[in-house]
Structures are given as C-alpha cells and as structure tokens.
Amino acid sequence: MMPLYSQIIYLFLIAIPISCIVWTVTQEEIFREPREYCQKVCGSAQSIVKRKFFYLFTCEYCFSHYISLIFLVITQYKLLYDDWRGYLLAFFALVWVANWNMSLFGYLRQNLKVEKIEAKLKDIDLKDVQSEKQ
Fold it and tell me: Do the beta carbons of residue 98 and residue 22 sit within 8 Å?
C-alpha cells in the first residue's frame, strides 16, 4: 500500500487526464458533430438502452464515470484499502475530483469570456470617444 499522501497526490494527478478527456468530448467544438448526433439519437431512440448509451456522451458527469473506470483499469489505482474496497473508493473519488476540475475550468473559462467581452466593449467606447473628439 502506498502512503496516504502519495495516494492523494495520485488521486489528483489521475483526475487531470480524466477531466481533460471528459471536457473535450462533452464540451469542445472538435466533438460537436458527434455530440449533436448522440443528442439526436438520445432524444429519438425507442430503446432505453440505446437512449442511455448515447446520453453518456453528452453528459460530463455521466461520461466521467466511464472514463474513470477505464483509468482505474489502466492504472490499478486504489484508495485507502488494498482490495476491492480500494478500487470502489478510488472510483468515486476520481469521479468527484474530475468533476470539480471541470467545474473550476468552466468557471475560469466563463470569467475569461466575460473579461474578453468587457475589453471589447471598452475598446469600442474608446474608439467612439476618440472619433467624437476629431
């Protein structure tokens, strides 16, 4: 078993690529078309299994569970216990930390967009004032 501080460091480090993959697939422009297709199928499919399968690619929270599971298989990371309980705790902890990462990233990104818009508005106002002086 790793020391607790190492386990916690691993928890936060493993959650970073999980967050990155999940955010990219569920939010970014590069996956817009597949995501729109999944939304369309999710809304119109007759089978509940098909609807739920396609929904997971549109929901960052849902998708983070599956990506976390893949990373647990790859890394064999365990939290606190050295048996199946360690995998279970690690699974839910990774999902939680990854979703916090995405929430913080979304918040920062939103603030940057607001600042960018405010800067453009100030630039337009400055140009208007300068043109009125001339």
Answer: yes
